[in-house]
Amino acid sequence: REALEIKYKNIEFAYSRKKNTVFNNLNFTVAKNEKLAVAGESGSGKTTITHLLLRFYEVHGGSITVGGTDIRDIPYDELLNRISIVMQNVQLFDTSIEENIRVGKKGASKEAIIEACKKARIHDFIMSLPDGYETNIGENGALLSGGQRQRISIARAFLKDAPILILDEMTSNVDPVNEALIQEAVTELAKNRTVLVIAHHLKTIQHADQILVFKKGKLVEKGKHGELVAKQGYYAQLWKAQYEVC
Q1: Any alpha helices (H) in the chain, and if so which ranges?
Q2: pTM of this prediction?
Q3: CB within 8 Å of 180: residues ≥ 6 apart
Q4: Which residue of 44, 83, 95, 136 sits 20 to 30 Å from the alpha carbon of 110, by its own alpha carbon?
Q5: CA separation for the pair 176, 167 (Å, rounded)
Q6: Residues of the chain with pLDDT under 70
Q7: 36 in Cβ contact with 210 (< 8 Å)
Q8: Residue 109, CB half-sphere, CA atoms under 13 Å: how many?
């Protein structure tokens, strides 16, 4: 597995032709092995960026390339095989923990699943359950906390071992212990991959290689965290609003 470059070139997109354009001539590149974060207020277009990469919607103009190939020229299953997604709302099934993690890679061995769970910092918790990996987690993982569900999702991503990783705001509504475990696991998961982070909590992206700041679909600033705070622009306003509340 080799990390892949992602390039958004001259992107034009609107959810409806009659409605306001979401993106107009959007350009940016996520280099191989780079961790790029996308920040901005709710409704600024952050999640749309991942939806276009996953081809939930097609661009109306321009192109998105992965490893130099237009994603429209990559068979859909093959495109999805190149991307792991760890999202806030994890889809889980009413079956065992083991089978839920095997969703990441059909036919994976028990040994591979255990290894993925150790990396995801969820193995010890699983082993504390009476039935271990055979524990049934209930409909949509009802028996697990939000943080445990997210670590199951991270274990799937380790098992899949895709070159591109999308992280969509993972530490919302998670207790501090789970948040620390998730951050540890994600740091390891991000190694040697191209990572796209959709961020709502700016503290989680302070160490990103590049931060793109969106406002109403426009890319208004980009740079590292320290540079953006020093500029006293829109990102600095968002930072102050989140962390300097009196």
Answers
A1: 46-53, 76-81, 97-102, 110-119, 123-128, 146-160, 176-190, 225-230, 234-243
A2: 0.90
A3: none
A4: 83
A5: 19
A6: 17-19, 169-173, 245-246
A7: yes
A8: 3
Instruction: Say how many C-beta atoms besides its own lie within 10 A of residue 109's C-beta.
Output: 10
What CA–CA distances, in Å, run from 187 to 13, 35, 128, 208? 32, 10, 24, 11
HSE-CB at 119 with a 13 A cutoff on CA atoms is 22
Q: Are 84 and 156 in contact (CB under 8 A)?
A: yes
CA 117 remoteness from chain centre: 18
| The one-letter amino acid at 107 | G
24 pairs with which residues across the strands?
12
Distance separating alpha carbons of residues 63 and 7, to the nearest angstrom: 8
Token digits of residue 161: 């071992």
Task: Name the CA radius of gyration of the chain, rounded.
Answer: 19
Amino acid at 214: F
pLDDT per position as a tens digit, 31-80:
999 999 999 988 888 989 999 999 999 999 999 999 999 999 999 999 99
Alpha-carbon span 24 to 12, nearest angstrom: 5
